[in-house]
Amino acid sequence: MTAPPDLTVVNVGYRSTNYWVVSAGRSRLLFDLGWPGTMGMLRANLRRADIPLPEIRCGLASHYHIDHAGLAQELTLAGVRILVFETQLAAIPSMKAFTKPQNHYLEFETGGIVPVPFAESRTILKEIGIGGEVLPTPGHSADSISLLLDDGSAFTGDLPPEELAEAGDPDLVRASWRLLCEKGARRVYPAHGPVRTM
Ligand SMILES: [Zn+2]
After folding, report:
1. pTM metric for this prediction
2. How many CA atoms lie within 13 A of 151 on its CB side?
């Protein structure tokens, strides 16, 4: 896996979903937040990858569907700051409707959360040593975001590839890829499937 010289990217995913840890030394970020009720699995995978949970400075959900944000509350309780972006807050309550009691979803309590404007993402990432920004990339869902590192690595969640734009809102999907492309995305780290070049 290619990564910028000062950053490393590790996949700690499971159940055919990729969860990415981007690290600047021991300052780390988690992109996508696990299935509900699987904190033990996430912890085990982090341990296997030699990534202490307290080194994860913040977590981002590509969007608030349960396979991407199911552990938001557990991670919050474990001390990880979850960055909820301005287009995302409204999507969070519906996660509860898509889980059954046997999923053991712990509801993400957003009462104290101040949504982050996209324009502030670069500053926040810089504070943890990561050069990049977060962009709104709707198309799979209205609240979908992407993390774009300055070396061109783009973490795109469930944004369908352009040739499969019909799997989402095709115009929005194409516009999101156009934005990523204009901003310098060269390599795609999707939530499902292998890393690919653009
Ligand atoms: Zn989704």
Report:
1. 0.95
2. 15
